Amino acid sequence: MPKAFQCATIKVPLDYSRPKGKKLGLAISRLKTSTKSERRGVLLINPGGPGGTGVDMPQLLASQLPKSVKRKYDLVGFDPRGVGQSSPVGCGLTDQEQDWERAYKPETFAKDVKWARTFAEKCHTKQGDKLRHISTRNTARDMDVIRAVLGEKKISYLGYSYGTYLGAVYTQMFPKRSDRFVLDSAIDPARIWRGMIQVWAEGSEPAFTRWTEWTAERNATYKLGNTPQAVRKTFYDLIAQADREPIDLGDGSWLTGDDIRSGGRAVFFSVRDAAEMVVELKKAAEGRRPSGDRETRTPTPLPPSFGRAVPGDNGTAAFWTVLCADTRNWPRVPEQYRKDAIRDNARYPLYGDFASNIMPCAFWKKNGSEPATRISNKVGALILQNEWDSQTPLTSAQGLRRVMKGAKMVTVAGGVGHGIYGFSKSCADKTATAYLTTGKLPAKDVTCKAAPERESSGANPLPLPTPRGIPGLAGGF
Hints:
Largest sheet: 9 strands, mixed
Organism: Streptomyces capitiformicae
Domain AB hydrolase-1: 42-227
Oligomer: single chain
Mean pLDDT: 92
Structural class: alpha/beta
Region (Disordered): 284-309, 450-477
CATH architecture of the domain at 5-88 and 133-194 and 371-449: 3-Layer(aba) Sandwich
CATH superfamily of the domain at 5-88 and 133-194 and 371-449: Alpha/Beta hydrolase fold, catalytic domain
GO molecular function: hydrolase activity
CATH topology of the domain at 5-88 and 133-194 and 371-449: Rossmann fold
Strand content: 5-15%
Helix content: 25-40%
Order of helices and strands: EEEHHEHHHEHEHHHEEHHHHHEHEHE
Protein name: Alpha/beta hydrolase
């Protein structure tokens, strides 16, 4: 650990309307710049989530960000309230209860309703009134406390995925304290939060269609069909087979059709990865052992930076606590979820019923302490977005751009993957670095081309889905 890396815990109000009331501990970290003469201020970082721990982000990005940026800023990380080492929430959920990606089926819907109700009841039993205050607005207020504690008049910010919404909320609440904000892989504020999960279904269909076209052109390599229609049939035949009888992967695990749909959804944004996945599934379905060693996806342990115990279900509990506290637009009647799941399964067959099925917020006992934040401002910011992003599709970033009228947006045409700056060599990097170091935004929105080889996300050489029920697999933002 570098000597310049510092950790601390500060106290913030649980309820900002009662500043002298109960306090939460907020874990923060800082990696100071070594060039004081060039220092501009602090760059707060949020990795996404909600529920993502951020205290280790300065160390992670220290090797990824350009030197010119690190000379300008102290890198500051923090675990948002309720997450990791910042007064973490936990609901005592079992591994099966944490599995919230559930396909709609008439015969299991009552069981899913019972699961959602149990999830909500367990959280309220464990956490009580605290849940109402674990929200994005309060996390933005916490960021402003961090600013004040560090003695800064303004903050600059780098937020990924959910962190783009957190950053947008901060600019809305504290516009005069917002300096240079980079919002990478963006959330549409108009669709928090049920709509953002439904975006996964909407975005997966054009990605799937693109994949069928790409794969059909390479039938000599993959042998999945010589037309897009034939490739599509190959895939959905595998789904039907797995629905009848789970596919044996040869390592003691089996995949149902629902496993393949939920686990494969994000893979189709990376056409080469998806083609390799379906080839291996086809082998397994034919009784042939898949090639190589399948990656086992297990939850990433929370970093032990502050040496305090964290509930095992913290990531899932924090995710849903924020999603339920931030907005009051979750339907309260299970029948609405049933109707929507049936509708969206027809519209978006890959993932539509998962996205619109019953969720814990249907039974959350108390709304958040405030209504959702309406984003509409002219604060300067830079939005970065890949064209083919599985978690925050391009339409999502365009939604944020519409309401942040002072922002500019860089779209990476053909870009694949979730997260750009500091994690991939992207044509957007130069613009982001220039903005952070000089403060100059492009005169207008920019579209640049991804490198041709970015047909694969590079995340997993053999991206087979994993059987459902393993905690931590359901993606966040």
